[in-house]
Specification:
Radius of gyration: 22 Å
Structural class: mainly alpha
Strand content: under 5%
Helix content: over 70%
Number of helices: 25
């Protein structure tokens, strides 16, 4: 009993500290991991070798590879180029600008890190809004919300997807066939809600269309040759991701191989490139794996599975809906990564107990992906966008996010729940 109490306490305290942001989340996770190993050794339920074995190097390898790809593309100005192009194509029409910026952000976030995407696109969006004399709130919020939504569609679009893919063997193609169709419906739902909530702001007429016309997209593209090379590599990687099941190549190998080719081909300043890699995120993931491994060794998840087995009498579709909404609500207040890591062994345990779990994995995907839109702290992309907005005339406050982001979260989660029920038999395959 003591191992369960001790390991659960360490994890809960770590989550509370991560949520409070009183201490950097990576530092918190590292302290939690060290405590888990130390107390595990003292109480004889966890050790160093076990801790090392719990780290999912397939997930970390995939994340590292994609981060290096992003760090190569970032200084080329490719994202700024896209944003200026979109601004000019819109002709300054507020509604069209929202759709185009939202679409571009969504597409990019399907293959690259959401945070990096908004970090690069949001400043240009602010510039375009300032030139046109438009309120930047609708566009910045749309970029954050739709980047979170778009990330659900692919294996590499969101960290929880990578974790679930590694745990289940779901391929890139599995996500395209099972998740992407639902994301498309959810995306239009989110856009419709945003149009309604920001209807006054979108009715605003731009003040200076001539200044927008003077912007040159080519000026934003600082290194077109390197950008083209990296885009080619990304395209080849996507093809290999689609063929991974047939080629029997793990996603991590594709990502690391792709970034190696891109590094050789572009010959960047390697130190500068590696500086842009989010090493703290990789350490955060590794530390979480160690903590979750300690809880598993202590028997926490066996106990949770035993409790969940009592729900065996419920139809699996109902169990999936409960999971989807619980995860979505939790993701509003706690990072969806630790939630996902914690629930993976529970779902595995339910499968071992004889409960069909194929559709439950997709419930976890949707809940973790759409839930973070509900609050300003529900997603790192939300926090980044709100921070950038503080430099504008119309900053995004936590209250504003609750008024505009929460309806989007509720609406998209409802739609995904409906689609989950309608396509349950397909998701169960």
């Amino acid at each position: 009993m003591w191992p369960i109490i001790i390991s659960s306490t360490i994890f809960i305290i770590s989550l509370v500290l991560i949520f409070s942001e009183k201490l950097n989340r990576t530092i918190t996770a590292m302290i939690g991991a060290v405590c888990m190993v130390v107390f595990g050794m003292l109480f004889h339920f966890y050790g160093e070798d076990q801790a090392a074995a719990t780290i999912d190097f397939n997930t970390l390898g995939l994340l590292l590879g994609m981060m290096i790809i992003v760090s190569l593309l970032e200084p080329t100005g490719f994202f700024q180029f896209l944003a200026v192009k979109v601004g000019k194509v819109s002709g300054g029409d507020p509604a069209k600008l929202l759709v185009l910026l939202g679409a571009i952000t969504t597409l990019v976030s399907m293959f690259l890190d959401n945070v990096t995407t908004v970090v690069l696109i949001a400043p240009v969006t602010i510039l375009i809004c300032e030139i046109l004399g438009l309120n930047s709130q609708p566009y910045l919020m749309a970029e954050a919300l739709l980047s979170n939504t778009g990330g659900v569609a692919t294996l590499v679009g969101d960290p929880p997807n990578i974790l679930i893919g590694s745990a289940t063997g779901f391929t890139f193609l599995d996500f395209l066939t099972h998740s992407l169709p639902i994301v498309i419906f959810v995306w239009f739902t989110a856009l419709a809600i945003l149009f309604f909530l920001f209807r006054k702001e979108l009715a605003q007429k731009p003040s200076d269309l001539e200044a927008l016309a003077e912007l040159n997209a080519k000026d934003a593209l600082k290194d077109s040759r390197s950008a083209k090379k990296v885009i080619v590599v990304i395209f080849v990687m996507i093809v290999l991701f689609l063929l991974e099941e047939f080629l029997e190549i793990r996603p991590a190998l594709i990502a690391l191989g792709g970034c190696a080719v891109a590094l050789v081909w572009t010959r960047p300043a390697i130190q500068e490139t590696l500086k842009r890699v989010q090493w703290d995120v990789l350490i955060f993931f590794g530390a979480l794996f160690i903590m979750i491994g300690g809880m598993q060794a202590a028997g926490v998840f066996d106990a949770l599975v035993n409790l969940a087995v009592h729900l065996k009498s419920l139809p699996t579709v109902v169990l999936g809906l409960i999971l989807l909404w619980v995860v979505a609500i939790l993701s509003m207040i706690v990072d969806n990564v630790p939630i996902t890591i914690a629930l993976i062994p529970v779902i595995h345990g339910l499968g071992t107990a004889g409960i069909p779990v194929s559709a439950l994995w997709w419930a976890l995907v949707f809940g973790a992906g759409f839930g973070g839109n509900g609050t300003i702290i529900g997603s790192t992309a939300n926090i980044v966008v709100s921070s950038l907005s503080e430099k504008t005339r119309n900053p995004i406050t936590p209250m504003l996010w609750s008024k505009r982001g929460l309806p989007v979260m509720i609406g998209t989660t409802l739609v995904s729940s409906l689609l989950y029920v309608l396509f349950f038999s397909f998701l169960s395959r």
